[in-house]
User: Which sequence fits this backbone?
């Protein structure tokens, strides 16, 4: 018997992977550390995850970093998370740009502190010409809030009722122009959507791992992609459908 583990090959590459980065608090609690230490640890693997996505040929990576519901957490945790976002942008933007990564944001930036908002906007502008990998940061994002925002904007633009169809709605979402996620990964074992991409994820494949987000790495990502390769995506039909034949694809 060979002592070497044979790696299962990747057979199918999802175009868009979306991740619910969960479990930072539990990661910290297991070490007797404050929750914010878990959130900080949950940024240290980001660079490796971005690089792995580029290496595997993923085109879009969406990261759920702060939900509209997360405002209800204790004030010091919310403040800490805002500070962590600012630090990540300061620390990672130049590197992201060097690696050919484009940054986008989904959610509402208005509620953020103006300095933080400007930091995010600057990073988006700096990386706008890149096309190797698009990282969509879901920060102050909620799927229901996104729908509310879309309906408000449709009404404001005078869209006629007869003009409303699935593709028009998609174009009014924060994710306009971004293909629907093929694979949604949730760390820390929770099996729920938590208000994430509730429209776009209609036909996404789900992968839940017990690994806590700060421990998630290239190998974990590889496992998720290999698992995705075994799925038969049928989109309601009776035989597997290739993604580019998916009737709902935008
Ligand atoms: C995910 O980790 C990060 C955010 C929601 C901001 P959690 O903070 O939810 O970690 P757990 O679920 O308490 O372990
Ligand atoms: C979802 O995780 C939000 C993010 C990862 C940013 P939560 O920890 O907030 O979700 P629930 O409370 O377990 O549903
Ligand atoms: Mg959580």
Assistant:
């Amino acid at each position: 018997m060979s002592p070497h583990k044979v790696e299962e090959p990747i057979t199918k590459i999802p175009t868009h992977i979306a991740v619910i980065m969960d479990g930072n608090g539990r990661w910290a609690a297991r070490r007797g550390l404050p929750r914010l230490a878990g959130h900080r640890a949950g940024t240290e693997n980001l660079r490796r995850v971005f690089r792995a996505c580029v290496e595997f040929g993923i085109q879009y990576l969406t990261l759920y970093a702060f939900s509209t519901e997360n405002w209800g957490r204790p004030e010091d945790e919310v403040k800490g998370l805002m500070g962590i976002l600012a630090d990540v942008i300061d620390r990672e933007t130049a590197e992201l740009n060097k690696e050919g990564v484009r940054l986008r944001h989904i959610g509402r930036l208005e509620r953020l502190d103006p300095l933080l908002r400007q930091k995010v906007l600057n990073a988006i502008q700096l990386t706008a010409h890149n096309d190797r990998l698009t990282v969509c940061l879901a920060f102050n994002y909620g799927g229901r809030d996104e729908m509310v925002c879309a309906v408000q904007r449709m009404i404001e633009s005078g869209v006629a009722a007869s003009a409303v169809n699935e593709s028009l709605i998609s174009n009014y979402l924060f994710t306009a122009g971004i293909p629907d996620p093929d694979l949604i990964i949730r760390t820390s074992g929770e099996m729920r959507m938590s208000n994430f991409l509730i429209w776009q994820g209609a036909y996404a494949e789900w992968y839940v791992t017990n690994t806590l987000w700060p421990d998630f790495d290239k190998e974990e990502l590889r496992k998720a992609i290999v698992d995705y390769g075994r799925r038969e995506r049928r989109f309601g039909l009776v035989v597997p459908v290739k993604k580019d034949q998916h009737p709902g694809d935008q």
